[in-house]
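thought: fold this chain, then report.
action: predict
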Amino acid sequence: MRNDPASTAAAVLARAGGPGNVTSVAHCMTRLRLGVADPAAVDAEGLRALPGVLGVVADGAGVQIVLGPGVVEEVTARTEALVREAGPAPARPAGPEGGVEAAAPRREATPVKALLRRVANVFVPLIPALIGCGVLAGLNGLLLNAGLLPALTPALTAVASGFMALIAVFVGHNTAKEFGGTPVLGGAVAAVVVYPGVAKVTAFGVHLVPGQGGVLGALAAALLATRVEKWCRGRVPGALDVLLTPTVTVLVSGLVTLYGLMYAAGVVAAAIGTAADRLLATTGPAAGLVLGGLFLPLVMLGLHQALIPIHTTLIAQQGYTVLLPLLAMAGAGQVGAALAVYVRLRHDVSLRTTIRSALPAGLLGVGEPLIYGVSLPLGRPFVTACAGGAAGGAFVGFFAMLGDKVGATAIGPSGWALFPLLAGNRGPGTAAAVYGGGLLTGYAVGFAATYLFGFTGRSRAATST
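observation:
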């Protein structure tokens, strides 16, 4: 029976320190992401015990509650409503040094983790549009290759490409919002990156190209705009603030973007593309093994979203990201491991029920239900699942080294859900064959490794009774 989203939201808030402790509410495909004022007030064990909660990841100044696709959208909407109804949180008493009383709870939020979390907060809201436009782009590509519906394909091209052409504006908006600036000013400065007129501007002796630097340039431009805006707010008289602050922010940030950030971000973006191609061309199997084998721990820690800027940069440059199919092999290893657990622990009715309910999501690339419900609690199957992901990644990487690159035109889905988004230098058919072979390899190695090495002596004895 499905849990009521309203009840789940209320229970989550109660264990997250109450509505007054929640500073932000967001979600990705599977996780409710709460920013909290006092991490020490969060009852992580209580959250894990809630019906429908598949896992909990504490990341310093926030907490991620894994709920699964579909459910997370409903619970997030209810949570936002409850936080709004509760109103602003009361001011916290200051400690002896003028700070908030509980400064200690921030001890878990290392600078790197905090930065990755904030970068993820910029890009995670863009994933639904990336998925929708990517699927349409793949469909349009099939129609063009087959010569079907020639009157419709130009319209599909416009619908699928419009968002990607202006993604810099959305990145700038979200960046300013996340880092404490005015969102529309961040979007306005980032819009400079994609404005066609930049082709008339010369920086470092060369003409700029619209879109140069991509999302990295937009991110840097909006960050600069936020800093300039904050500097102005503290120095411009109140009567002139509404006029001078936006003007100075756009002027200074826009000029620095044109004459510095776009060029620098373009160099970095080009280096990312070159590095990805060279990595697969020279060390394809090894690169795939490492990427496929280490992705599950990144997902477990909630740090995988920080890779979105790299994926987006590759998509803007090459039309697809060659990294996502490699990383998606981690999910295949997870599925194979879960099947082995299902076979070996045939007397564990509860665990087999969990596997049956989570396996369809796992096949479609949503791995958290299997991670938190099956492999991670058992311990060894999590490691053997990583081995399956490494094998699948090595398979795809081997073909990349032979010249058969496989990429994804959008990010978000993986598993079997990634097939409509596949592309490559040898066409979609070859890309689908290589990717499918990688999935089968991940399933097989994940199953075999878990079946043979995923259980302790005691659990082996239990399965034989």
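thought: worth noting. The chain has three domains: 1-87, 125-276, 289-463.
final: tokens above.
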